Protein 1
Amino acid sequence: MSSYSYAQIPADGGRILGDTGDRVVPDAPIVPFIEGDGTGPDIWAATRSVVDAAVRKAYGGVRRIAWMELYAGEKARKLTGDWLPQETLAALAEFRVAIKGPLTTPVGRGIRSLNVALRQALDLYSCIRPVRWIPGVPSPVREPEKVDLVIFRENTEDVYTGIEWGSKTPEAERVRDFLQGSMDASVRRGSGIGIKSISPFGTKRHVAAAILYALSRGRDSVTLVHKGNIMKHTEGAFRDWGYEVAAERFADSTVSEARLLEGEERRGRVIVKDRIADSMFQQVLLRPHEYSVLATPNLNGDYLSDACAAQVGGLGMAPGANVGDSVALFEATHGTAPKYAGMNRVNPGSLILSAAMMLDHLGWEEAARAVGRGVEGAVAARRVTYDLERQMRDATRVSTTGFGETIVEHM
Ligand code: NAP
């Protein structure tokens, strides 16, 4: 039996076993949470109440979550002296499915970002962002209801690896000398230099996760988004390896768009297609209903997820998760909004909808749907937090807690 110095393992819960896509979930699973910094505690309190109410509503007391607090960020630093204690990583690996609020990025303390550190340490290789419009949420486009996308963004490769050297440093000059002397590649003097690397291993496991998601959720297509016309050996290879893994592992359940164009029938299979990244930005505005799951390398996915979220009303209501083979970490997509900390003011929607994704991941779809219904009901009733209220006509401004309570009323 494991034990931790700071975290308490609930005595009345059981461990989630199995890997992503194949979880074995007891009726009272132990689910770790990290409440987060700044407004994190405000939105976490509302989220926890909503999730507990949804589970009660769906399963009438037969199922419940045994919550277990883990420490990261400022709370961890105060308690343990460490921004990201080793035991938090160990517990996330042990308990497998967890949820977190936003964390402050420590400035100048050797950690690039706690979120990046968590993703790397736990090998959470896919960032998953569903983007769907909730009727009533103010949107800058005419037909936000046509957007129903799930973006799978690769988390560990591409420019995210942070392999770069600053302008005029001896390291950058050595790389430049090597490129010019041995590789016949010219780089301007004084350049900062970064390395973009994309591997078959990283691409195939990521695209496979996107295909498995599409298959398990009845989604009709997976689109590989890349800039392979220009960056042939990284982005172009991402596209090629994506098609390869579809053919190698999902030959019976997927079909390429090219084969459909040649006249082959779809026969219920998931269509695998690809689009060049710049055209994809047009497609999500002009013909969003033709797309379902998007699988992207890191940088394209970074831009695309926020651009798509803007189409349905912004990051305040955008859920997300970082998922690997074993561990899945669900999180708010916005930051800590520190100026509102402790004011019971900000929108808990992003974390609440991430919690709904988590319930769905556990196979507790009825509870996930109850959360979705509650959020839709609260927005339809126009009882919303300040960020939405200031953009909606005839809306009533409610607190973070008030929004959570309104969601529960509408489940
Ligand atoms: P931010 O915390 O996302 O806040 C920027 C603005 O977005 C806020 O001032 C507020 O706008 C709005 N906002 C954010 N969350 C909201 C919510 N729940 N409800 C309503 N409005 C919300 O971004 P930041 O100020 O750049 O970053 C602050 C800290 O968070 C930094 O330390 C950063 O590194 C960290 N961060 C963490 C994560 C993460 O943990 N995943 C992600 C991003 C940033 P108005 O002022 O217009 O009301």
Note: The chain has a mean pLDDT of 95.
Protein 2
Amino acid sequence: MPSVVVLGTQWGDEGKGKIVHLLGKQADYIVRYQGGPNAGHTVVFDDKKFVLHLIPAGILIPKKICVIANGVVVDPLSIYEEIKLLEKRDISVKGRLFISELAHLIFPYHKIMDIAREESKAGETKIGTTRKGIGPTYADKVERVGIRLVDYLEPETFSKLLEQNLLLKKHFIEKVSTVDKVRKEILDQAKFLRPFFKKFACDTSALLNKALDQKKKVMFESAQGTLLDIDFGTYPFVTSSNPIAGSVGSGCGIGPSRIGSVLGIAKAYTTRVGEGPMPTELKDSVGERLRAAGQEFGATTGRPRRCGWFDAPVVRRSILVNGIKDLVLTKIDVLGGIEKIKVCVAYKYRGKTYKEFPNSRAAINECVPVYETVPGFGPISQDIRNFKDLPVNAKKYVQYLEKILGLKFTLVSLGKSRDETISTSTKSIW
Ligand code: GDP
Ligand code: IMO
Ligand code: MG
């Protein structure tokens, strides 16, 4: 089947950008199906670094067609700026970037609402969002008051919908600004951006179905990770979309029968940004060491990421809910130099052992990780290209993870750039 979903198996930032940039070479189309500018996907090549928020990482591979499908929420100004930034760096998107007319748009009032909720003292849960307006935009979509790109492109339709929304959001807007100011800002922007968006807007469902009919290879690039999924993540400390593979169908307008394989990316340890439970978090010098060695700072917000040991129940949940058949291990180099490495194989809560990730809030919040300790390894040279050349204990670590997860890694990543990767299987991902 010529389609593959590439997704994060933990709390995001697993290295999706790097892996899509590496494997996207084999694809014809690279597609974002959910999330929005909350994502930050880093791609490093030829001593250059790019951080993509809304545009698929495939845009950095010459000639690839990139699609922002209907499941994504798009901030008109931020995508305009992202495109301009790419063009400044000689990456042309002309003729190879398409945005779904059905994608919902993020407006300044969504950001105001996101921030108001985060700062609310009224007992609402602080999530530690990226403050990009993601939650309120998806909420509008479900509430059936959202504004889609197709609506934005029709000035009259847009003005009516905008008025309806300004009225609904008046209470929030007036806490920080005035409705008149916000209306003017949005209308001025729309006037300027509308001709620009006309070049990219189309029916991306038709585009992708046609590509699949023509046996083109399509890669779906998730944002966030499964533990941030609105259904299967650590609710309510999640994002407001479904990063899981199952949402590719609704997020792109293609039938489930057209989705081929699912490739899960797992970091060799665990990180999380924002609030919410993280059973293996290390609030000590080892956690700090992982953060420093892995440069674990948010690609979108710059916030320090919380770091901890590899958590097998987390990745097992991802394997299960996504139907993952192949895994990629990233950032094994970051563990180099740690004498003893711990791996969480299960949780203990009120005398019961959980091998699988529990659903109860109390269990997730209060569980104690059950660790197994494995010997560490020295620094990993980023020049290594064969599995056999890795330090013995690094090889053993990879094999140990494979054993406890019940799946093989097809790639092991040991550096930022796409060359710094070891292929451990000859099996095709397609
Ligand atoms: P994404 O959101 O999943 O695309 O991941 P991010 O880009 O937010 O974070 C991953 C970070 O790790 C980026 O800075 C990457 O350049 C970097 N990275 C990716 N793979 C590796 C690796 O194998 N080793 C090291 N040291 N860094 C890596
Ligand atoms: P990538 O694609 C890591 C987190 C936020 C917060 C929660 C909700 O780079 O892996 P939101 O702004 O979505 O309402 O915030 O989700 N979050 C991410 N964490 N990587 C991401 O994206 C994230 N996108 C959102 O920190 O905890
Ligand atoms: Mg990221």
Note: Residues 8, 11-13, 38-41, 127-130, 132, 134-135, 223-225, 228, 239-240, 273-274, 299 surround 6-O-phosphoryl inosine monophosphate (ligand 2) (CB under 6 Å).
